[in-house]
Amino acid sequence: MTLAVLPAEPELGPQKRCTVCGDWWPLDPEFWYVRRYAAGEPATARGRTYSRHTPVVHFYSRCRACWADRAHEQYVARSARAHVRAYMRACGETA
Ligand SMILES: [Zn+2]
Predict the structure, then answer these.
(1) pTM confidence score
(2) Neighbours of 18 (CB within 10 A)
(3) DSSP symbol at 10
(4) Which of 6, 17, 26, 74 has its CA 20 to 30 A from that of 93?
């Protein structure tokens, strides 16, 4: 992950770069979705299952704004497909 304290904004602390929009955002759950994995939780890597030794805090690679864009695109695509299916049903066609 691309993580740095930007020389122009040292007061914001470490910042992370979004892989989609390319913007830098402070490493904070306000800007990123976070997944936390506790120690002792089963984990899978390279086809093997093992017990995690240390807790892990994983920040998503795209920022919250890009996640929202993606969710909206998926919603639009889903509803468009639903409209096509409803139209086909109304016409008595099967698809
Ligand atoms: Zn982004």
Answers:
(1) 0.70
(2) 20
(3) G
(4) 74
Q: What residue spans define the domains of the chain?
A: 3-90
Per-residue confidence (pLDDT) for residue 60, from 0 to 100: 95
How many A from CA of 38 to the centre of ligand 1? 27
Ligand 1 center–CA 60 separation, angstroms: 10
Q: Which residues pair with 17 in a beta bridge?
A: 24
- The Å distance, Cα 92 to ligand 1 centre, comes to 43
67 alpha carbon – ligand 1 mean position (Å): 7
Q: Are 66 and 22 in contact (CB under 8 A)?
A: no
Residue 33 has pLDDT above 70, yes or no: yes
- The whole-angstrom separation of Cα 57 and Cα 60 is 10
Pick the closest to residue 20 from 63, 58, 68, 71 (CA basis).
Answer: 63
Query: Cα(69)–Cα(92) distance, rounded to whole angstroms?
Result: 35
The token duo for 48 is: 């093997």
Q: How far apart are CA 51 and CA 71, in angstroms?
A: 32
